[in-house]
Write a structure and sequence with these properties.
The complex is a heterodimer. By secondary structure, chain A is an alpha/beta fold. Chain A is 32% helix and 25% strand. In chain B, α5 crosses α9 (157-183), α6 packs across α13 and α10 packs parallel to α17. Classes of the chains: A alpha/beta, B mainly alpha. The interface between A and B is large, with 67 and 56 residues.
Chain lengths: 273, 353
């Protein structure tokens, strides 16, 4: 299809973290001295092979869900796509730049929400005027209300992630990488952010979503990548099927689904007719 | 379903198949090497550092961000303190107060320098400007890691903003300095305007070294431990507390100390702000062995007349004072070019932490 423009190509990606001062070394001055003297060569460095040979292609307009257990390499994969982690082997190719929204990524904790909005917009390359124009919209979308005058360290984790999402989502990003950022938001915000992600997709961007809430992935994503120990178990557009496989592999109870639409049937909540 | 191509894996012929629940999930990669596929569609490596021209351009485009970031950091720095922004002016005042207490009231030494207090405070303020730039930029990358990992922007904006914070602080210190100098009897002259280009050159120098320390501090943790010792050594060899030319060491060493960048900026600003320095600088008057000798023996005594102390002007200059500005410009440009290049080389790696 002519309209199918690849936005992200990940080609046999390997990412290795080097952890200094990890086990094996008592961390005393004596061992450090031995190391410097060359008796022990870099004994305290441990390599963590977080991504081991991952390949996939994501196209314009895709919303890609990344699922897998804790420590399976989902966040690392997103960081690599955002260009924040240099690959050890293989490469990540993108059309444009990726913006990563992580749950731990405070912007500047000791500054007020207001300043964070302004700084975030300017950092993304907006002009002063654009920043002024977007300010109201961002604050309103985030729903932090009067808290905007307070330092971000006083925010609840939900409020913080809402503001961060609002800032990053204010500009149509080429590639938006959402790492559990919406998990801490309340129900109302999830609806809003869900709508915003759909909008961004329409603006010809690509969205990656890491979430442990599988229903959210089902509703938002048209493609899914299942990762395990730094490798892809399965990927494809048959989102519901892959998620059911994943649930089965994790030992969870099968999900009741509508046989036609594949939507979940919640027994406890009477379906609206 | 229109995405038929995506479902066709190598070896699978049912390309027209629709998505069906129960089908087998296969890798849906295009054929051929992925790297070629990516370049054919105009994709670029994600962790690639931009070419230097484009990098400079995007940095210029972020100038409002740099200023806003500097202001915000400056405000945040003092929000916890009850006196708030007042500390910006209190810090240099207290700094000067300590030196007045020690050297003005307790130690009673002058090292043969007329208006020793003015000489000392000027040196301390100018040295402090570069020292602060070094120390704050060494942690800028780790301090701002959340911001770096959340948004894409040229990372050089961060150390630049930190140097801007210090420049603002320095401007306030210069106001305090002007008051102190008038109180110690220095006249207000047009020469004071020369302090502006000298400070600008020092700022450019600070930006250059700030960029370099930002990169070093981002990867080498030992660096920030080492920094205080480096800075203290630099303090003592830059003639903050004494006139370098009076050191009893080889003239070659004196020359090296005199042209070290911090000493150059200190000398330039001292000569702009202090009339006593302008006139007593060795080499300011034609060499006169007898007067120079008298100064060297009697000029250092406590209570020696200012006239006697001014006679250091009759001694030999080791470095030609006319070349100070040349050195000042050369250091600034060298630091900027090398520091910028060094920082830019690692641009793609700062998010690693």
């Amino acid at each position: 299809m002519a309209a199918d423009k690849p936005m992200v190509v990940v080609d046999d990606l390997h990412v290795v973290y080097r952890v200094y001062g990890a086990g094996g070394d008592k961390g005393t001055a004596a061992t450090a001295l031995l190391r410097i003297m060359g008796r022990r060569t870099r004994g305290s460095i441990r390599e963590v092979h977080a991504i081991r040979g991952v390949s996939f292609v994501a196209y314009r307009g895709d919303a890609v869900g990344v699922i897998g257990r804790n420590g399976s390499g989902k966040t690392t994969l997103l960081r690599a796509v955002a260009g924040l982690l240099p690959p050890e082997q293989g490469n990540v190719y993108t059309d444009g730049e990726g913006a990563l929204l992580g749950v731990n990524a405070a912007l500047l904790d000791d500054l007020t929400g207001e300043r964070n909005v302004v700084l975030g917009c300017l950092a993304m390359g907006m002009t002063k005027k654009e920043t002024k124009d977007k300010y109201e919209g961002i604050v309103e979308f985030s729903g932090v209300g009067d808290f905007v005058d307070l330092p971000m360290k006083t925010y609840s984790s939900g409020m913080g992630s809402r503001l961060r999402f609002a800032i990053a989502a204010s500009k149509s990003q080429d590639i938006l990488l959402v790492d559990e950022a919406l998990a801490t938001g309340d129900a109302e915000f999830r609806v809003k952010s869900h709508a915003r992600i759909q909008e961004l997709r329409k603006d010809a961007g690509t969205v990656f979503l890491v979430a442990h809430n599988l229903e959210e992935v089902e509703q938002t994503c048209n493609r899914v990548i299942w990762m395990e120990r730094g490798q892809i178990v399965t990927q494809g557009e048959n989102v519901i099927e892959i998620i059911d496989q994943y649930i089965a592999a994790s030992g969870g109870a099968p999900v009741d689904r509508d046989p036609v639409t594949g939507a979940r049937i919640h027994n406890r909540v009477p379906a609206k007719t | 379903m229109s995405n038929d191509r995506r479902l066709s894996a190598p070896g699978q012929l049912s390309a027209g198949d629709d998505l069906t629940i129960g089908g087998v999930a296969t890798a849906d990669l295009p054929e051929g090497p992925l790297a070629e596929f990516a370049t054919a569609h105009g994709l670029r490596p994600a962790a690639e550092r931009p070419p230097i021209g484009r990098y400079l351009q995007s940095l210029w485009q972020r100038r409002h961000f740099i200023m806003a970031f500097a202001t915000a950091r400056n405000i945040a720095m003092y929000t916890e303190a009850r006196l708030g922004q007042l500390w910006q002016i209190l810090t240099p005042l207290l700094n000067a107060g300590v030196y007045f207490l020690v050297f003005g009231l307790l130690l009673k030494i002058n090292r043969g320098i007329p208006n020793y207090l003015g000489f000392l405070v000027t040196g301390v303020f100018v040295f402090n400007f570069t020292q602060r730039a070094f120390i704050t930029t060494s942690t800028v990358i780790t301090d701002s890691l959340p911001l770096i990992r959340a948004l894409r922007f040229p990372r050089a904006a961060l150390p630049l903003a930190y140097v801007m914070i210090e420049l603002e602080q320095m401007a306030l210190s210069m106001v305090v300095l002007a008051v102190i100098l008038v109180l110690t009897g220095e006249p207000v002259t047009w020469y004071w305007l020369l302090a502006i280009p000298a400070l600008l050159l020092q700022t450019i120098f600070n930006i250059g070294v700030g960029l370099a320390t930002a990169r070093l501090g981002s990867t080498v943790n030992d660096f920030s431990q080492l920094l205080p010792f480096l800075m203290r050594t630099w303090l003592y060899v830059s003639g903050v507390l004494f006139q370098i030319s009076t050191l009893a060491i080889n003239r070659e060493y004196v020359a090296i100390l005199q042209i070290n960048p911090v000493a150059i900026y200190i000398t330039l600003i001292r000569e702009a702000m202090l009339k006593t320095q302008r006139l007593s600088q060795p080499g300011a008057k034609p060499f006169n062995a007898q007067k120079c000798h008298v100064w060297a023996t009697l000029g250092h005594h406590v209570g020696a007349s200012q006239q006697l102390q001014m006679d250091s002007a009759y001694c030999h200059a080791v470095t030609n004072p006319a070349h100070y500005w040349t050195y000042g410009i050369a250091w600034a440009l060298l630091a900027l070019v090398v520091g910028f290049y060094f920082f830019w080389r690692a641009e793609a790696k700062y998010g690693r932490g």
